[in-house]
Amino acid sequence: MPRARWSVLAALLLAVVAGLPSVTPVAAGPTAGGMTSDNVEYLKHIPFEAGGPSGARLLGKHLYVAGFKNFSIYDIADPENPELLSITPTGFQFPNEDVDTNGKILLIQEETPRGMLHIFDVEDKQNPAKLAEFEAGDHTFSCVLDCQWAYGGYGSIIDLRDPENPSRAGNWGYSPSSPSFDVTEVSPGIVLTASRPLRLLDARKDPAAPKTVAYGHAPDDRLMHAARWPDGGKDDFVLVTGETPFSVRCDEDSSAFMTFDARRWKKSKTFSMIDEYRMTNGTYVDGRPPANVIGCSALWFDDHPDFSDGGLVAAAFLEHGVRVLSVDPRGKISEVGWFEPHGGSVVASYWLSADVIYAIDAVRGIDILRYTGDA
Question: 112-132 pLDDT, tens per residue?
Fold first, then answer.
């Protein structure tokens, strides 16, 4: 069929879909872990030993979870029945939000005035060992180029080619006038920063002095929290969250989950915001608490394994739990499922398989869910 006819058919299909009434998931009622929509099944609770979890990283068949006093490693080959392999004490460290690893070394950032970066050898999952610590001052750190380098949320570049002797190598471009929170390597040497504005960095030729190749702008220059670019930076959409901590009420000023257009970035050198999704308060039975203590910031999220130019996202919203969001082929966002924990505060969520979601809860531990809706 000629390309022009395919384009016409695609346009007609989008028009039909846009005209369909939106379907809001209804509550299935309370479970042992919390309220859920009718397409989310609560499976079980995994307590987190010696302090609430504050961040995690999923890599292969292992889940690395950091908390206020330790980090734990789980074998998640069977997602519904994770096996605890080890618990490593770290002393009180807050918040360790975005731990990162290549499966050999693990990076945990300590949120203190000194901002210590702790480096662990985790090749033996049952016996991790500390390699070094480095006074960096950043909020988070992420692995770059197989953890030979660490990029910090506040711009630091740390040389980890000898992980027992880390050294400061440079700054990727952070400044007080363009604050940042986190960075993510979307493909080897290509790094996306959750900053104002978003930056796409190319560190392949010179990791100590990466080149900024594109920017992403929100209309109101809001504070960004986390950013992901599915399919190794080949997807049509960049996915981003903001942050508004300790918001008692959720309103038009609350942080959002956002989609940015990445379809023409090579020519325009920019990513532009398409849509946003914000939390609102409710009545509990509708999956939304009437008020907040910690807030309803959009925090760490994960795109579905089958996400491709649209699809499902599991996003954490603190006291508002996990929201299963759908991004359509235009980049428009809708809610299609949810889990609201009893007395919890979800900081991160991950797809462990096509239907199993882990909710990493700073109060409760780990809640395991199954999404039964249409993927």
Answer: 667 889 999 999 999 999 999
Chain Cα centroid distance, residue 299: 6
Count how many Cα atoms sit within 13 Å of the Cα of residue 177 in the half-sphere of its side chain.
1
Please write the tens of the pLDDT for every residue from 129-174.
999 999 988 889 999 999 999 999 999 999 999 999 999 999 998 8
Whether 351 shows a pLDDT value over 80: the answer reads yes
Dihedral sign of CA atoms 149, 151, 155, 158 in order:
negative
The Cβ of residue 21 has, within 10 Å, a number of other Cβ atoms equal to: 5
